[in-house]
Design goal:
It contains 16 helices and 18 strands. It is of the alpha/beta class. The model has no long low-confidence stretch (mean pLDDT about 90).
């Protein structure tokens, strides 16, 4: 059943669930809910107990509301194990006797092959043929794209999306959760539960501390505010890159660290050989590529044994996929959905997009665009990237808890358009952080960037003048 012979000991945090025993050298094997589970030694298996019996298991890192990393989940009498699981943060999936559920952002990925009766973390673990048409159309390495709407590069292998469950008997996926209506959660409450979740993650991983990215933007500063009481255990970092905005990120991160006295490093670029990039792509099943594949050695070397704490889903609070002309009462078409995420318009993609839209209870365009971000961008792009690293320390989306995600989705349209959420989180958690600007250079860098902008304008106008003189 495993896709190829070879060494899977570097496939940290991965698993394979099947109806028949499957041996993966170096991995652990056990029964879960009547099925056979093979899992990498780094992947925690958290038994779910109800009435003194094991009724399922959580695969991954389960963070309680009071900041504990669970090794067992006890379900209160009469409670639904699924609902109890969704009270927790971290990165996990839930297996019961009948179904499989993802965490709110799908950060512990699952793909499934109905004809083979297999669920796995990555398509790379399933023995199935490549879908040549899709592989050519998506061309993830050269286009920096990803496979949305449950598609994968392999025939007969589908990705389970956030807010969906998988019936382990029929191997059919269905939507099981709809978020609250827009405007039903005040931004102040949404910010409060976000701070609670970030703080709980900081406590849960206190033994090693977290490794958290810091830029000049609002999202990473929001995480800094939430981790205020864990600064002695947290290391913040900024990657040095060739991006034009990177000097701004480095300057602002250093300024914040100096003023507020926390640990910060600038991670220098590390050459990543092609063989390492290909191994990363193998681990994520060739479902995405991009800078994360090219620069993963830098992250691995800089992060050490600390789990990566990422933001990943804050865009839900500001309508990342919204455009100025979008109106709530104009339904989104499959073609528009594909264009919004730059998916190639193959027949398979169009049909998958239509099926996804048909499964939504709401046709509110703005709400659908938020779910497009959560289920297709986060669930099919960000989350599979969690499997690429060889490090046994996991990547954790610090806002990944059901009440946090639902609250972001339930903000008013006005709150999202004005970006109130991240500012409110920072205001409640560490208001002094607002003293430094966002995405704006300071001092010598401001002068340098203004000069560069002026030079560009001068070159543009001179070029136009030369063209007019030549035509004349």
């Amino acid at each position: 059943m495993v896709a190829r012979s070879g060494d899977y000991i570097e496939w940290a945090g991965q698993y394979l669930l099947a109806l028949e025993p499957t041996e993966v050298p170096g991995w652990h094997a056990r029964r879960v809910a009547g099925r056979y589970l093979a899992s990498h030694p780094s992947l925690p298996i958290v038994p779910v107990m109800a009435g003194g019996h094991e009724v399922g298991a959580l695969l991954g890192w389960v963070v309680s509301r009071d900041g504990k990393l669970l090794h067992r989940l006890d379900v209160p009498d009469g409670a639904d194990p699924v609902e109890v699981a969704y009270e927790h943060g971290g990165r996990w999936l839930l297996i019961t006797e009948e179904e499989l559920y993802l965490d709110p952002s799908g950060s512990q990925p699952a793909v499934y092959a109905p004809e083979l009766g297999i669920v796995a973390s990555s398509p790379g673990l399933i023995d199935a043929e490549d879908d040549a048409e899709l592989v050519d159309a998506f061309d993830v390495v050269n286009r920096d794209g990803w496979y949305p709407f449950g598609l994968t590069p392999k025939r007969g292998v589908n990705r389970l999306l956030p807010n969906h469950r998988l019936d382990l008997t029929t191997f059919e996926a269905s939507r099981h959760h709809e978020a609250l209506a827009p405007g039903s959660v005040p931004v102040e409450k949404a910010a409060a539960v976000a701070l609670e979740a970030i703080d709980a993650a900081g406590s849960a991983f206190a033994d090693t501390g977290l490794f958290v990215g810091l830029t000049s933007g609002q999202d990473s500063r929001m995480l800094l505010a939430g981790l205020r009481s864990h600064l002695d255990k947290t290391q913040f970092w900024t990657a040095r890159s060739v991006a034009r905005t990177n000097p701004l990120d480095v300057q602002m991160a250093r300024a914040l660290a100096k003023r507020f006295g926390f640990d910060h490093v600038v991670a220098e670029r590390v050459p990543t050989p092609e063989a390492h990039i290909e191994a990363w792509l193998d681990r994520v099943g060739w479902t995405r590529a991009g800078d994360k594949a090219k620069n993963h050695r830098m992250e691995e070397m800089a992060g050490g044994n600390r789990p990566f704490g990422h933001e990943a889903i804050g865009g839900l609070a500001r309508g990342t996929y919204w455009r100025e002309a979008d109106l709530a009462d104009e339904p989104l078409t499959p073609e528009e959905a594909m264009k919004r995420i730059s998916a190639p318009p193959t027949s398979a993609t169009t049909q998958a997009a239509k099926s996804w839209l048909d499964g939504l209870a709401s046709s509110d365009r703005l709400r659908v665009l938020d779910l497009l971000l959560l289920e297709q961008r986060v669930g099919c792009w960000a989350s599979p990237g969690n499997l690429g690293s060889r490090r046994e320390a996991p990547t954790i989306f610090l806002l990944n808890r059901r009440d946090v995600v639902d609250a972001m989705l339930a903000l008013t349209h006005e709150d999202k358009r004005t970006g109130r959420y991240t500012m409110e989180v920072i205001r409640q958690g560490w208001p002094e952080l607002l003293a430094l600007p966002f995405n704006q250079p300071m001092g010598w860098l401001a002068v340098k960037m203004r000069a560069r902008t002026l030079q560009g304008r001068v070159r543009f106008h001179l070029g136009g003048l030369r063209r007019r003189l030549f035509r004349g």
